[in-house]
């Protein structure tokens, strides 16, 4: 396994095709390929796809920024991702980059492709857009996440009004900021436009926990103060962002060579909200 924290994308049956498309576009490899769950790596980063049905549609509230070290690399990815997709911001020169574009690909995933001359350790960075009732809360969210997770920090902040910018936006709100949680980099922005979308379960953040103590700590914090528990380790935090808090032990038990044991663990997990490792082990041993 590479990163402990990674994004999960919800698909309606075409996730296997999408994973192959992303691996072909960016280079990488598929590490788990089943009808319902696909894990793949791009630039050494883990991503996950669930083929889970039509319930949720992906949108630009969570996009993926790809940092490129040449304009040619930007054009290469743009060409592939825009084929059958929809340009949200046309590729071109912008104040923040000589070559940048924002595109929704043919599978509904949105990408920000950007040339940068800076050295970048993490090539793909999820970007969280705080809109509607969350507009103006990007800074609060960064503080909340970096306080909660160990080995975390706010790395950079740019605010509206500091260097001109969009007159439609509120001065002092976050134009673009970058932060890390347990060493995994994310970015965020406030946005004042009345977009017809918001956070939903179509893009979630998975955290693989080491033990029950870590599982409890993250679950309790993320469901507090307006957060909401769901089933099978899923939850929404107070900003509406979806998380999956998944003990590593769950994956170990479900992947036991004895399919009957794995099935019992799966059936027990399906009855849970927060994952209880002791109950999983009891089901495994029964």
Automatic annotation (TrEMBL):
CDD domains: PhnB_like (cd06588). InterPro entries: Glyas_Bleomycin-R_OHBP_Dase, PhnB-like. Residues 4-114, 122-246 form the PhnB-like domain. Pfam families: 3-dmu-9_3-mt. This is VOC family protein.
């Amino acid at each position: 396994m590479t990163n402990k924290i990674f994004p999960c994308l919800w698909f309606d049956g075409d996730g296997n095709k999408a994973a192959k498309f992303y691996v072909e576009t960016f280079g990488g490899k598929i590490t788990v390929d089943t009808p319902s769950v696909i894990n793949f790596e791009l630039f050494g980063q883990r991503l996950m796809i669930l083929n889970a049905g039509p319930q949720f549609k992906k949108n630009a509230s969570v996009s993926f920024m790809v940092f490129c070290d040449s304009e040619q690399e930007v054009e290469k990815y743009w060409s592939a991702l825009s084929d059958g997709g929809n340009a949200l911001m046309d590729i071109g020169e912008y104040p923040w980059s000589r070559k940048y574009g924002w595109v929704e690909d043919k599978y509904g995933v949105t990408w920000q492709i950007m040339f940068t001359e800076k050295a970048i350790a993490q090539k793909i960075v999820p970007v969280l857009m705080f809109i509607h009732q969350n507009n103006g809360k990007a800074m609060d969210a960064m503080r909340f996440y970096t306080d909660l997770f160990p080995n975390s920090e706010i790395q950079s902040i740019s605010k509206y009004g500091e260097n001109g910018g969009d007159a439609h936006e509120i001065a002092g709100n976050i134009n673009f900021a970058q932060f890390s949680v347990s060493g995994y980099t994310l970015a965020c922005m406030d946005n004042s436009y009345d977009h017809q979308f918001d956070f939903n379960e179509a893009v979630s953040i998975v955290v693989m926990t080491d033990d029950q103590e870590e599982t409890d700590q993250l679950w309790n914090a993320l469901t507090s103060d307006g957060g909401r528990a769901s089933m099978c380790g899923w939850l929404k935090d107070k900003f509406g962002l979806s998380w999956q808090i998944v003990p590593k032990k769950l994956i170990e038990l479900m992947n036991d060579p004895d399919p009957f044991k794995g099935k019992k663990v799966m059936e027990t997990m399906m009855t849970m909200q927060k994952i209880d490792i002791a109950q999983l082990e009891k089901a495994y041993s029964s």
